[in-house]
Amino acid sequence: MSSLNQSAFLAINHLSGRNGVLDFLGVFFAEWLPYALVIGFLILIASEHGWRKKIFWFAEGALAVILSRGLVAEIIGVLYHEERPFSFYQLTPLITETGWSFPSGHAAWFFAMAMTVWYLNKKWGGWFFLLAAVNAIARIYVGVHWPLDVVAGAVIGVVCAIVVHAILAANREALYASGVHGSSPTIQP
User: Fold this and answer.
1) Per-residue pLDDT for 73 more than 70?
2) Most Cβ neighbours (<10 Å): which of 34, 49, 58, 158?
């Protein structure tokens, strides 16, 4: 393990356990912010015009998350075993976490979602990226991830969302070109 990774972890995690308010915020952002991000994503999708567009963007986000968190991050986690920092330093983390540390599944999930939201709405996407970064830093703060875990997870999430977006590009263009965003589907023979 690199000394830079360890030094960055210690610089962030060193603040935990010293201030009840900071610890509360760290736990909140590490454990509960993800629920708010998912709800925000669903609200954004629901606010889109036309049922096809809603389904399309929901599917794009779901595919990006499944690819990044459910497939790529899981495969890497099976092949590469990195001890969690609280175990490495024999610390008591602020939240409970099991399994290997690398890569961060949370970062893969929420950066994939942020990239998908960015494609749909740049303003919301900027907020999603900021909040995904806050979640990633909080997971270091509470002692369950190394900085490189969350960086790797973020890269996986963004790359997977870009790939899914590119694969679905032709279908998206056809959907928008049809001009039928909210009408009932027609049955083709």
Assistant:
1) yes
2) 158
Residue 64 lies in a domain: yes
pLDDT at 184: 40
pLDDT at 1: 59
Tokens 């027609």 sit on residue: 186
Element (H or E) spanning 175, and its range?
Answer: helix 169-178
Confidence tier at 189 by pLDDT (50, 70, 90): very low
183, part of any domain: no
- State yes or no: cis peptide before 103, omega within 30 of 0: yes
Q: How far apart are CA 43 and CA 24, in angstroms?
A: 26
Give dist(CA 177, CA 184) in Å, integer.
16
Residue 165 domain-assigned (yes or no): yes
Q: Cα separation of 157 and 154, whole Å?
A: 5
Query: Is residue 1 a contact partner of residue 80, using CB atoms and an 8 Å limit?
Result: no
Q: How many domains does the chain have?
A: 1
With 0-12 / 13-18 / 19 or more C-beta atoms within 10 angstroms meaning exposed / middle / buried, residue 160 is: buried
Query: Which residue bears the tokens 């970064």?
Result: 133
* CA-atom Rg of the chain in angstroms: 19
